[in-house]
């Protein structure tokens, strides 16, 4: 793992082969980085870099009897954060690689708790070391005050320690901003800017009501990408850019597909200028959508496929991966919004069969849940309260599909009885029934609806066409209430 950047990220942010680029910034061609890493001797080391969740290797060399190893090549490497790997110890430490690619490093790792690293002829790494020395000192203070706050027995002391923690964090941020101003033309500034979090103005620091909270959320969303250039491929060779994208789509931006699509198109309009960034961003969004990293609707995957995959080819996208993406995209496009929902035929608590399409309602909320899921057990009574107070009289019905996992039918029927959910249409999707469907060549109901977390909610109109799919509980309630107020 990272040695240099680990502390930095914790305190500030609380695929294939290496890219080769023309030598335009240095008199010396190629790269040559000499390491002396004590106490290592007579073993093979690797040079790699970050790229999303991967660590591509770009070079290898052996450490001699004097603990010296030299990585060198005729062509310059892409700029970013690189890692020295020991196959037996994983990553030894990280360093910045900019256009200055001829330098030396002396590292004494005899004591893992007190690693000493010095750079020669590498200005940015020297600057970074000074910054990290400051962070380490402040980090020790932070840890000490955090411990005191946790063990404090009175409110006055807790507030005092909390204030000290805030001050330390501010000092680190201020120091980082100082480095950015003093090194505007350097790679380190680009990295620090990309690590920033939006800083709320004084008027929004204290949020007194929902209007203030909404304004603060909007400010963070609007300023999340300030100073970041999506055509700068150097950002992809870091360990923080991918998680920053994940936090944006997972926590900052609302779940609506239209918002996600608009922001993706904005990012891609700049990313297409850089092949490495196009690779990084598009593959992360595509596979993040397919692997359920992002909780957005199927419309986003369909849009990514139709606009960026179907009409284009990429060196980094193999035929196997393209086929997998295409199959998934065609599947979700076949059950898009306004398309008929698949029918469901399962047993009710009294042993009779009940189909989804036999349920007559102005709107139907299909709820996939698990009787052993704690979040489900908390959420369903809340829905029932809304259903009894408002939805039932306006022709809304709930079709609840209990998916068997670790529990039993008894757990299901007991929960229904204890929480008085008899007004719902309750059906049970057992593991045995699901297996029989699969064995007969049919898809299981969870697969048909692409359910991978519980509870999952779908809203259908009177003809059982999708109105919305896989909404979080809050968004589902807001949608149904909105539908009921429309003429």
**Radius of gyration over C-alpha positions, nearest whole angstrom:** 28 Å
Shape call: globular
Strand arrangement across the biggest beta sheet? 13-12-11-14-15
CATH architecture of the largest domain: 3-Layer(aba) Sandwich
Helix content: 40-55%
Spans of at least 5 consecutive residues with low confidence: 1-26
CATH class call of the largest domain: Alpha Beta
Largest sheet: 5 strands, mixed
The helix-and-strand class reads alpha+beta
What is the terminal-to-terminal distance? Answer: 58 Å
CATH homologous superfamily assignment of the largest domain: Glutaredoxin
Question: Could you give the count of β-strands?
Answer: 15
**What is the count of distinct domains?**
3
**In percent, how much strand structure appears in the residues?**
15-25%
The number of helical segments is 16
Q: What is the CATH T-level topology of the largest domain?
A: Glutaredoxin
Mean pLDDT: 87
Produce a short descriptive summary.
The protein has 487 residues and is an alpha+beta fold. The protein has helices spanning 4-12, 123-151, 155-182, 187-195, 202-205, 210-223, 241-252, 257-271, 275-290, 298-309, 319-333, 374-391, 409-418, 431-439, 445-448, 473-485, and strands at 31-38, 43-49, 57-63, 68-73, 80-86, 90-97, 102-108, 116-120, 345-347, 353-355, 363-369, 396-403, 425-429, 456-460, 466-471.
Q: How would you characterize this protein structure?
A:
With 487 residues, the chain is an alpha+beta fold. It has 3 domains: 4-131, Immunoglobulin-like (Sandwich); 200-333; 345-485, Glutaredoxin, CATH 3.40.30. The chain contains 16 helices and 15 strands. It has helices at residues 4-12, 123-151, 155-182, 187-195, 202-205, 210-223, 241-252, 257-271, 275-290, 298-309, 319-333, 374-391, 409-418, 431-439, 445-448, 473-485, and strands at residues 31-38, 43-49, 57-63, 68-73, 80-86, 90-97, 102-108, 116-120, 345-347, 353-355, 363-369, 396-403, 425-429, 456-460, 466-471. The strands form 4 sheets. It has a 5-stranded mixed beta sheet with strand order 13-12-11-14-15. Helix 1 (4-12) packs across helix 2 (123-151), helix 8 packs parallel to helix 10 and helix 9 runs antiparallel to helix 10. The longest helix is centred in the first third of the chain and has 29 residues, at 123-151. The radius of gyration is 28 Å and the shape is globular. The chain starts with a helix and ends with a helix.
């Amino acid at each position: 793992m990272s040695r240099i950047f680990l502390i930095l990220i914790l305190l500030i942010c609380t695929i294939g082969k290496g890219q080769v680029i023309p030598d335009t910034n240095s008199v010396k061609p190629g790269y040559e980085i000499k390491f002396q890493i004590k106490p290592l001797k007579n073993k093979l080391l690797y040079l790699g870099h970050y790229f999303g969740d991967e660590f591509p290797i770009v070079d290898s060399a052996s450490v001699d009897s004097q603990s010296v190893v030299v990585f060198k090549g005729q062509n310059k490497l892409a700029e970013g954060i690189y890692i020295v790997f020991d196959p037996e110890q994983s990553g030894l430490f990280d360093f910045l690689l900019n256009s200055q690619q001829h330098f030396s490093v002396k590292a004494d790792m005899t004591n893992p708790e007190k690693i000493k690293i010095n750079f020669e002829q590498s200005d940015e790494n020297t600057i970074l070391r000074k910054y990290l020395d400051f962070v380490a000192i402040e980090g020790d203070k932070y840890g000490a005050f955090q411990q005191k706050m946790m063990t404090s027995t009175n409110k006055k002391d807790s507030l005092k320690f909390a204030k000290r923690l805030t001050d330390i964090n501010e000092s680190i941020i201020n120091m980082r901003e100082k480095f950015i101003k003093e090194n505007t033309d350097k790679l380190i500034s680009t990295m620090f800017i990309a690590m920033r979090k939006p800083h709320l103005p004084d008027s929004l620091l204290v949020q007194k009501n929902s209007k203030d909270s909404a304004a603060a959320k909007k400010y963070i969303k609007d300023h999340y990408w300030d100073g970041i250039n999506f055509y700068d491929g150097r950002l992809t060779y870091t360990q923080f850019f991918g998680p920053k994208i994940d936090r944006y789509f997972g926590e900052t931006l609302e779940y609506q597909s239209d918002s996600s699509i608009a922001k993706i198109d904005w990012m891609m309009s700049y990313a297409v200028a850089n092949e490495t960034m196009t690779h990084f961003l598009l593959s992360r969004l595509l596979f993040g959508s397919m692997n359920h990293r992002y909780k957005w609707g199927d419309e986003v995957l369909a849009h990514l496929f139709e606009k960026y995959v179907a009409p284009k080819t990429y060196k980094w996208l193999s035929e196997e991966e393209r086929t997998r993406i295409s199959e998934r995209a065609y599947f979700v496009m076949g059950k898009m919004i306004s398309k008929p929902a698949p029918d469901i035929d399962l047993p009710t608590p009294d042993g009779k069969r009940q189909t989804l399409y036999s349920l007559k309602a102005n709107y139907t909320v299909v709820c996939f849940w698990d009787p052993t899921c704690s979040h489900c057990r908390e959420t369903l009574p809340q829905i029932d309260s809304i259903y009894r107070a408002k939805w039932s009289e306006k022709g809304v019905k709930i079709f609840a599909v209990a998916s068997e996992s670790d529990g039993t039918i008894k757990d299901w029927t007991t929960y229904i009885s204890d929480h008085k959910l008899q007004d719902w249409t309750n059906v049970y999707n057992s593991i045995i029934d699901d297996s029989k469907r699969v064995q007969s060549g049919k898809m299981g109901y969870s697969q048909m609806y692409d359910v991978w977390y519980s509870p999952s909610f779908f809203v259908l109109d009177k003809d059982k066409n999708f109105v919305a799919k896989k909404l979080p509980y809050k968004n589902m309630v807001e949608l149904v209430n909105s539908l009921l107020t429309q003429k």
